[in-house]
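BUG: 3D viewer hangs when loading the predicted structure for this chain

Environment: internal workstation, default settings.
Expected: structure renders.
Actual: progress bar stalls at 90%.

Input used:
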Amino acid sequence: MKNPTRRNILTIGLGFAGALGLTTLGPVGTARAAASPRPSEWTHKTSTNGWPITSRDGIIIQEVEGAPVNFAVRGGATATVLAYIARRFVYEIDSAIRDGDVTGHTSDRNIATAFESNYLSGTAIAIRPDSYPLGAKDGLFPHELVVVRDILAECDGIVRWGGDEPTPKESHFQIDVGPEDQRLRVLAAKISQWDRTPGKGAGSVDAFLPSRRRVARDMEQRQEAWRVAR
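Structure tokens produced before the viewer hung:
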């Protein structure tokens, strides 16, 4: 491997440590690679966020602007929002992402945890799932976590991050509202407007501005409260 990135080094280190049964120090603390739940078949007609399971209908191949990446996802507002998340991740966290590093819709009903059912409805993506696997925690550097929190705040509660789940999956981002929730369409329209406006949207955001940090922290607390209340 030529010029390995910090992410590749971290991933290799975690894999080696896991093979030896050791605990390895991660970017923001101790990376704990807990045992993942055993896969089981999802038999429901909808995913956990309320969207219908589909094998093909409504699924498109979505490109990510600024990166040689595409993924399968439900079309319309869902595709707009999830593509925006992937684009910000590429611009602000990992510009080395290549085709195949972002995965979306699947027809394989064997999943390890309930929130992964959202892949079956085409309403979730995983960005570098091999680097941030199910059950592994603290895989992001502090400045990368700031960006993720800023993305979630921009999405105003419409998107949930797998790193906030009891069994974490830090590569996972899902639409967290049902198909009839108009807030998803409002967010998608806002993102589309940013894309048409110079100086707005992905590539022009400063996630470290104090005002944005405050909003991001508030959203983190609100989403944690929602999770506990469920």
